[in-house]
Design goal:
Layout (H helix, E strand, L loop, with lengths): L1 H4 L2 E2 L26 E8 L5 E2 L6 E2 L5 H6 L9 E10 L6 H16 L5 E5 L5 H11 L6 E4 L12 H12 L10 E4 L2 E4 L4 E2 L8 E2 L7 E4 L2 E4 L23 E5 L7 H8 L4 E6 L7 H12 L3 E6 L14 H4 L2 E2 L5 H11 L6 H10 L1
Parallel strand pairs: 2-5, 2-6, 6-7, 7-8, 14-15, 15-16, 16-17
Antiparallel strand pairs: 1-13, 3-4, 8-9, 9-12, 10-11, 12-13
Helix pairs in contact: 4-9, 6-7
The chain binds glutamic acid.
Length: 359
């Protein structure tokens, strides 16, 4: 496979006498010579447990201490500490929690006592949180999101090994300057392109356009080649924001109605992302409703419901004429994240497009 030819082992943290100790430290404790990784827990299946009645399992049950205690091998990789930020199924993730997470990550990494951060997260919206943090955390230090698709106690539970891999990446100086990363099922991904591709099977995640950034084998990370982050990549300082502009998504399909577009405009959305068909194409009724929304100052971004490929300007839709923005490589849910942030700065379609092109 071509991918493996470019693999290079960057660094594996040396094992020290402290390996025999617990490895656990207080947040902010300084231990010389060992990477210090702080784990922020938010819930999801990685913190889930099988239950005997009702639904088969519940997400967001186990606390961060239980997650860390379940993986004794962590002590061979880093000194680590944990913090419970939330304990939810990630279908309940929202703007408030995103803003809180971004502030906490920036605060920890601006300080001198944290070398890397791991965020445990439900897999349903993990890609959106990864994208949000990628755009709102400015640090060369590693920030790594991780989840699991099988809860503790299930046959083939994947949480412990995924967490071990994530800490390994966060503890590794070779992970610096790569933006926010995601580790799942032995693969390492950039935040921008990763998406959940299976509700139930392995691997549950893929980066359909760019592929994985690296592989994990026995807790060691092997990076592939990379082009590097775009110097035009936008950054949004959310330290003083307490809410984000409302942006909705409309889904394209045969026989689609324009009612959802009209409802979003009526509800006061400042932006609308279209998950269009093919290369972001729009039924003529939906096109008319979006053109009308755009003329009233709602920023319209065209993305596609198709899992891979790009949505480029002026292919079949005349974006110039309607003042639309093309999402490029971003899927609809990530285009929504970026649009929320961009709208804190501008509503001008050409400036919005510039920021989309830079990411
Ligand atoms: N729906 C839950 C969540 O996203 C569980 C799914 C999972 O983590 O895989 O948190």
């Amino acid at each position: 496979m071509a991918f493996f030819s470019g693999l290079k082992k960057i660094f594996s943290p040396a094992r020290t006498a402290r390996e025999e100790s617990t490895g656990k430290i207080e947040p902010g404790e300084k231990v010389r010579g060992r990477p210090r990784v702080h784990v922020l827990a938010t819930g999801g299946t990685i913190a889930g447990r099988l239950v005997s009645t009702g639904p088969r399992y519940r997400a967001g049950v186990l606390g961060v201490e239980a997650l860390l205690d379940a993986v004794p091998a962590l002590r061979g990789l880093a000194d680590y500490s944990g913090e419970q930020v939330a304990n939810i199924g990630s279908q309940d993730m929202d703007d408030d929690l995103w803003l809180k997470l971004a502030r906490r990550v920036n605060e920890l990494l601006d300080g001198q006592y944290t070398d890397g951060i791991v965020i445990t997260h439900g897999t349903d919206t993990l890609e959106e949180t990864a994208c949000f943090l990628d755009l709102t955390v400015r640090t060369p230090k590693p920030v790594v999101l991780v989840g699991a698709i099988r809860p503790a106690g299930a046959l083939g539970a994947d949480g412990a090994v995924n967490l071990l891999d994530a800490v390994s990446v966060a503890a590794n100086p070779g992970s610096a300057g790569r933006g926010v990363l995601v580790v799942m099922h032995g693969s390492l991904f950039e935040a921008r392109d990763i998406t959940k591709v299976s509700t139930s099977g392995f691997p549950a995640f893929a980066a359909p356009n760019s592929g994985p950034l690296g592989q994990l084998v026995d807790g060691r990370v092997y990076y592939g080649q990379r082009a590097g982050l775009s110097p035009k990549r936008p950054f949004f300082d959310v330290s003083r924001l307490d809410k984000l502009p409302p942006v909705g998504i409309v889904y394209g399909h045969s026989g689609v109605s324009d009612a959802p577009v009209k409802a979003l405009v009526e509800a006061g959305c400042r932006g609308i992302v279209s998950a269009g068909v093919g290369s972001g194409n729009l039924h003529h009724d939906v096109l008319a409703a979006l053109a009308n929304a755009s003329s009233r100052g709602v920023v319209v971004v065209r993305a596609s419901r198709v899992p891979s490929g790009l949505t480029l300007r002026n292919m079949e839709v005349d974006d110039n004429r309607y003042g639309f923005v093309a999402a490029g490589m971003l899927n609809p849910q990530k285009a929504r994240v970026l649009l929320q942030l961009v709208l804190t700065r501008t509503r001008k379609p050409e400036e919005v497009q510039r920021m989309f092109d830079g990411y």
